[in-house]
């Protein structure tokens, strides 16, 4: 829509919106750097939201309505926007409203827009540019030591990670070399293929492999040093392929993660895994671990929530304390199409 995208669409996004736009719609079910003087509240909770896409006017206006949580923490699961300015908007408001903020990169933060292709940071340099912005606001990133959460539901170790994807979420009869062409057969091509550069790596899958090795080692060390402290793993991309059910654009799966992380929730004894990317808000239980997809999405994808009188505050998902695991450690998927179900009431 003309009033919702501030850049020149044809210049910045040659493929228009991500293919996840239709998928999410049809899914199943300030600038201050100091904390204002709010009255303290109890308990101390941890919330999450991702994919707020501040390049859209509607989402920027919604984000500006975030209410104060002076004792609470907030996880930002990636895709704040495509520029350091978008990151600044996200972090300025979040750090004003919350006591502690955690961030992981999504694919959109890693974009080098067409207007920046000659002089803009690419790949790893773009990621580190984002990390620098986050640190300037006191936001914890995957490059910082994991922090202990001692609020309700704790103590837990908050573990932001960054894995990217390697096109391995594909059928067995589709080769890596043919994966993108296979997706293109159904008119599905991620904007990443043009705007997300792997520099200095040869390919995105090579960068993914290096990231997986790095964060596997970091998580192993954390588990060894804190054997009795559950982990809250945060990653923009889902850790498990079976949690990627994109009914409208199934072949988009190749840009959604790596099979190398499929067992990380068990390997690292995660209490909760928090992700975004899919633009399909859902809760899953696997092997006693709770998986929370916490995307907001593009304006049209949560328009119905707005029309029902909900706002950005209703879209925050409570991560901790959260509920007890189901008796068998498994439960049917709960799709949170209308709002995030911020406080738990049995779902």
What is the fold's blueprint, element by element?
Blueprint: H1 9-12, H2 20-25, E1 46-49, H3 57-63, E2 69-76, H4 84-97, E3 98-103, H5 123-136, E4 147-149, E5 156-160, H6 179-184, H7 192-195, H8 204-225, E6 231-234, H9 264-267, E7 270-275, E8 282-286, E9 289-293, H10 303-307, E10 317-320, E11 331-335
Parallel strand pairs: 1-2, 2-3, 5-6, 6-7, 7-9
Antiparallel strand pairs: 1-10, 4-5, 8-9, 8-11
Helix pairs in contact: 4-5
Q: Could you characterize the architecture of this molecule?
A:
The chain is α/β, with parallel strands linked by helices and 347 residues long. It has a single domain (9-335), classed as Purple Acid Phosphatase, chain A, domain 2. Helix content is 25%, strand content 16%. The protein has ten helices and eleven strands. The protein has helices spanning 9-12, 20-25, 57-63, 84-97, 123-136, 179-184, 192-195, 204-225, 264-267, 303-307, and strands at 46-49, 69-76, 98-103, 147-149, 156-160, 231-234, 270-275, 282-286, 289-293, 317-320, 331-335. Strands 4-5-6-7-9-8-11 form a seven-stranded mixed sheet. It has a four-stranded mixed sheet with strand order 3-2-1-10. A hairpin with a 6-residue loop joins strand 4 and strand 5 (156-160). Helix 4 (84-97) packs parallel to helix 5 (123-136). The chain is globular, with a radius of gyration of 19 Å. Residues 45-280 form the Calcineurin-like phosphoesterase domain. One of its GO terms (molecular function) is hydrolase activity.
């Amino acid at each position: 829509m003309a009033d919702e995208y501030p850049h020149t669409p044809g210049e910045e996004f040659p493929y228009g919106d991500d293919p996840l736009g239709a998928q999410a719609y049809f899914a199943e079910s300030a600038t201050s750097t100091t904390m204002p003087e709010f009255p303290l509240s109890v308990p101390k909770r941890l919330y999450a939201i991702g994919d707020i896409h501040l390049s859209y006017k509607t989402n920027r206006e919604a984000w500006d309505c975030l209410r104060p949580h002076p004792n609470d923490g907030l996880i930002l699961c990636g895709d704040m926007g495509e520029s350091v300015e978008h990151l600044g908007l996200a972090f300025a408001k979040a750090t004003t409203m919350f006591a502690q903020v955690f961030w992981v990169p999504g694919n959109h933060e890693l974009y080098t827009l067409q207007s920046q292709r000659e002089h803009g940071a690419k790949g790893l340099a773009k990621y580190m540019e984002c990390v620098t912005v986050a640190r300037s606001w006191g936001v914890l990133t995957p490059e910082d030591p994991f922090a202990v959460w001692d609020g309700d539901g704790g103590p837990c170790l908050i573990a932001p990670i960054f894995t990217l994807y390697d096109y391995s979420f594909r059928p067995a009869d589709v080769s890596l070399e043919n994966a993108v062409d296979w997706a293109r057969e159904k008119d599905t091509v991620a904007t990443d293929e043009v705007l997300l550069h792997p520099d200095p790596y040869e390919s995105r899958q090579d960068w993914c492999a290096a990231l997986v090795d790095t964060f596997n080692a970091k998580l192993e060390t954390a588990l060894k040093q804190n054997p009795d402290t559950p982990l809250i793993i945060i990653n923009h991309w889902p850790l498990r392929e079976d949690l990627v059910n994109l009914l409208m654009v199934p072949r988009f799966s190749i840009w959604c993660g790596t099979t190398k992380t499929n067992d990380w929730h068990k390997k690292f004894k995660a209490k909760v895994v928090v992700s975004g990317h899919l633009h399909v808000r859902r809760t899953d239980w696997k092997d006693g671990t709770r998986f929370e997809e916490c995307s907001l999405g593009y304006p049209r994808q949560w328009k119905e929530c707005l029309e029902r009188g909900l706002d950005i505050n209703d879209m925050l998902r409570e991560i901790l304390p959260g509920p007890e695991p189901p008796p068998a450690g498994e439960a049917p998927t709960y799709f949170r199409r209308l709002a995030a179900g911020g406080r738990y009431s049995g779902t």
